Amino acid sequence: MESAVLVSRRVGSIPRAIGCLFLLVLGLLGTSCTGTSSPSLSAVPPYGDLERLDPQGVIVTIWYPESHEAVLLTMLDRFNQTNPWRIAVRGERGEDSAHLYQRLRISAPTGKLPDLVIASPGYLAAIAADGLAVEYSPYVQSTRWGFPAEAREGFFPFVWEMGTLSQPKGQYGFPFALSAGLLFYNRGWLHRLGSDHPPHTWEEFQRIACAASDPASGIYGYEFLADDRTFVRLLVGWGGRLMNSEETEYAFGSPEGLEALTFLHALIAEGCAVREPRWEQAEADFGAGRVLMVTSQTFHISHYRQVAAGRSGLDWDVAPLPTTSGLPLSDISGLFWLIPPTTPQRQLAAWLVVRWMNDSPQQEWWAIHSGYLPHRRLSPEPLAALAEDIPQWAHALALMDLPDLQVVTEPEVIGYEACRQAMQAMVSAVVAGEDPAPWLAQTVDFCNHTLSRRQ
């Protein structure tokens, strides 16, 4: 939720806005950024003799955010009815990742932990640092319980890189719900402008956006949300990095970061783009033919299909994000499964739920019914059905398999949730006309402070 402080538009208020955000991060991380020790577990229980464990009849409790309740519970009902181990799964709803993290910290001293938790990347890092998650490698690589080599090859490569932390080192999260950032564009309008393809570079993007715009008539080439994802897509598209390779420091205060903000500032100043506070309105404007291009996520493809259906003959499609090099790009974001340390049998049963969710039949159902990105390539029959029903969704899946696609994932570090809010404040100020340079410097400094943690 934005506050007045976060969207302050006075240049002189930058230090105060970032300072207030630093107070916010203390709340997001609980006591973990103070001198007070966290209620971490002193040692992770052993995995046991994994190949000989018997998970039969274990009851698995899952803590999940309420935003994903409907589709998750449908999947869990199917698991309860069909799994061969007679594992019974029950879910407990929480508000969001922040609430679930605090609940874990409170429950840790009592030992009353759930068997699975669904959390966002920033909280995954904090939970693992508190000793409240076990590492996945023993399960993934298990001869009896893991994924065979041929099954692993069916996953998109980026899946195996996600949930992997630098501190503590290892894979502590496994993808639950992923979405890929793409360019959504009105193909018929683009053709009328004389282009037979979506823009591959930001130079092409600016030229086409400006050619399409008529601010006096409320027509724009590009509509966007002033949020962290808009900035990250521009940043990496300009060749920048959000963090250094070791994920020990934020690196977006680079020349590429300034170029990205300056580019967005110029699009607004020249009347070639417009900011929309709500993604629902951006969808409506695109469907009504008032906007040529938007940047959104694969999760929203079904939403755009619905609004486009209300405008007869709207011809639209999706494409990779533009870059300065012209090579295709997509950013991947989402939530992760994590397994708290309990007992070897309970941990194994929890892993079997995660593994079942990632088997081909479940992933095919998931992609069609949830709108989230599948973690593995679909087999020909469901892919053909998807292409017939929602061709843009099938095109998006094909883009995920491009050999030269650059995939950028969210940092899985402590404090990232607060850093995201700081970046949103920065983008809001810049598109309102403020100088990008001081906002960029102050935001990088704030984000680096969120990485500090005294045990």
How would you describe what is shown here?
It is a single chain. β1, α2 (about 70-80) and β2 (about 90-95) form a beta-alpha-beta unit. The strands form 2 sheets. Strands 1, 2, 3, 6, 7, 8, 9, 10, 11 and 12 form a 10-stranded mixed beta sheet that branches. The chain has a two-stranded antiparallel sheet with strand order 4-5. The chain has about 450 residues and is of the alpha/beta class. α1 (about 15-30) packs antiparallel against α17, α11 crosses α12 and α17 runs antiparallel to α18 (about 435-450). It is globular. It is built from 18 helices and 12 strands. The protein folds into 2 domains: about 40-180 and about 335-390, Periplasmic binding protein-like II (D-Maltodextrin-Binding Protein, domain 2), CATH 3.40.190; about 180-330 and about 410-450, Periplasmic binding protein-like II (D-Maltodextrin-Binding Protein, domain 2, 3-Layer(aba) Sandwich).
